[in-house]
Amino acid sequence: MGRSRDNRRRAAAEAVVEAVEGGLAELIPDPDRARAWSLLIDGAPQSHVDLDDPAHLSFEYQRRIGHVIDLAAPPGKPVQAVHLGGGALTLARYTAATRPRSTQQVVERDAALVQLVRRELPLDPGARIRVRSADAREGLAKVPDGWADLIVADVFSGARTPAHLTSTEFLDEVRRALRPGGVYTANLADGPPLAHLRAQIATAAARFAELALIADPAVLRGKRFGNAILVASDTPLPLAELTRRAASDPHPARLEHGAKLTDFTGGATPVTDTSAVASPAPPPSVFR
After folding, report:
1. What is the mean pLDDT of residues 204-226?
2. Any residues with CB less than 8 A from the CB of 185 and at least 6 apart, and which?
């Protein structure tokens, strides 16, 4: 008990707290890892990064996206990746560590957050990661046609995904920037009655031939608010291996695809720019 209190005092003493465009950013040191930090915005956990081991993914939703990154191309093969939403640049660092010589673009709207992360959690100078301060959709529009092997969307403003990143028109931009056979993955968040998540699956199904959804079974049953990872492509996905990895995670998840995923939508219709709304705000209890 004494050690726990000492760790909390050390974390509080060494925390970096700074106002950014999206709110109050806090970088909290991990008492169990010498150079690891958690990023919080207005108290909501955003990222965790270990500067000594960038292949370590602490957050369960980031591990699930990590599985997608692992299977997007043969092991170790460099990829061209676009990350919409930067946070502490955790997933870009992960890609650079597991796929050396990859070329990556990160689009993060919050320029002050980018400056904070670059200063306090510097990137490996050998990593080929370019960070652009721009709106995610505007930044995506500047990616050349067919450039990306992988596009990762993890964009939250005030713990909600902005409406203009939820539509078929947004996915048209994603498809334009992806090479044939490229993979799109997105971090979605929802709770009961799962109207947002069902609509997002229907939206993706209107633009991609192959879909999968990875989430905690309790989230899929509408029992609690949580994250769900969408995976989409125009070519078959590595479903068996994604299923195995999701099930063997320290926080096991279920993968849905095919007819079961279609049934999950419950007749939801695709979202367009004219009907789009931001994802629902998480209940306060999620971050307690």
Report:
1. 97
2. 65, 68, 69, 150, 151, 152, 153, 229, 230, 231, 232
